[in-house]
Amino acid sequence: MTDVPRPVLWALLGGLAALALAIGLYARWAGGLSRFEQTSFACAQSLIGPFELVINDRRVGATARLLRPEGETPVEITARGDEGLTLAAEGVALRVDPDTALVVVMVDTRLAQVRCRKTEFRM
Fold first, then answer.
1. How far apart are CA 24 and CA 9, in angstroms?
2. Distance CA 38, CA 115 (A)
3. What's the CA gap between 77 and 63, in Å, rounded?
4. What are the contacts of 84-92 at 24+ separation with CB within 8 A?
5. How crowded is the C-beta side of 100, counted as CA atoms within 13 Å?
């Protein structure tokens, strides 16, 4: 067995370290290695009473779930922008800022803001 020259060994180790760093950064910021993601907002009081909003996909057209004591309602994500996500269902519209967990509830012409408890789960 022959010895590997030291410069070649250091180049290989440096390349492996750079690859590991790139994979770690991709997994951290791009969510590249997570197969499932769920964000939920538990809100105590609002125009529609206590509710929980469960979001699995943040793309426009995706469906989230609005859970209330009287049952579950599917809500569609209708817009996505700098101010957050806009969701709509029959009789209610919601605007959610995922960073601050501030939810604006719109029913007919009435508007109310509520600060919610945010829970994130990734796998």
1. 23
2. 19
3. 6
4. 85/55, 85/58, 87/53, 92/48, 92/66
5. 13
Rounded Cα distance, 28 and 80, in Å: 22
Which residues fall within 8 angstroms of residue 68, CB to CB, at 6 or more apart? 48, 49, 50, 51
Side by side, the strands of the sheet bearing 92-97 are 110-115, 102-107, 92-97, 84-89, 71-81, 63-68, 51-55, 37-43, 117-122
In order along its 123 residues, the chain shows pLDDT tens digits of: 567 678 877 888 888 888 878 776 666 665 555 578 899 999 997 788 999 999 999 999 999 999 999 999 999 999 999 889 999 988 899 999 999 999 999 998 899 999 999 999 988
Are 53 and 118 in contact, with CB atoms under 8 Å apart? no
Q: Six-digit token pair at 76?
A: 């569609």
pTM of the model: 0.69
- The torsion angles phi and psi of 115, rounded to 5 degrees, stand at -90, 130
